[in-house]
Design brief:
The chain has helices spanning 3-7, 12-20, 31-49, 101-132, 140-148; strands spanning 52-62, 65-76, 82-87, 152-157, 161-167, 175-181, 186-195, 202-211, 217-226, 231-242. The chain is an alpha+beta fold.
Amino acid sequence: MNIKQTTMLSAIAIGIVAALMPGAAQAPPSPDQLVASLKQNLAESQKKLRQYEWIETTAISLKGEEKSRKQQRVYYGADGKLMKVPMGEPKPAAEPSGGGRGRRGSGRVKENIIENKVEDMVEYMGQATALIQKYVPPNPELIQKAKDAKNLAVAPQPDGKVRLAFKDYVQPKDTMNIDVDAKAALLSAINVATYLEKPEDTVTLDVRFGTLADGTSYTSQTTLEAKAKNIRVVVENSGHRPMAK
């Protein structure tokens, strides 16, 4: 998952809530007004986040067992691109156990099987991530298309939240929900349910947000699950601090 894309989502709420809250414009916003607000607020959010650096922790699990965990220092470079610097040393590969020639041969076979599984997992996750990036951040053109096709519903939620529920957003029978904290004018969550190739090959994305001391919103946790492959990826962002000048 591209953190630059997910973190920019935090300011979408401002444009949306401004049109939805009582006392705002009497008429509902037009698709053009909504798209313009999204573009403006995405740009403002990106500018704010460029002032910070943070730690990204990524954990990948297969069948409920964690297979890898890595941490990276994340920040925006002078050219505006998101930079990721690995932290710590990678875990050394386990030495094959000793024994006769037959055991050594068996060990090599097991290593090859494990390597193939890892390669398959990485390839699959690459495909899943590419699909998710069609949803996150929400594409203004697709939002307008959903509105025109009457595939967008807006509904109040508990605790002062508003939900924008999309269906058939990128492909048939998919769904995407955007939850907005109307009182604070901030995104609280994004949930996507979609699939790769076949509807039974489900891929889900759950994005949660946090707020820094200065009011800057950021992606606190992103969870991607591919149930058909029993793969789960959790990306957490923490330790935000202003970039040294």
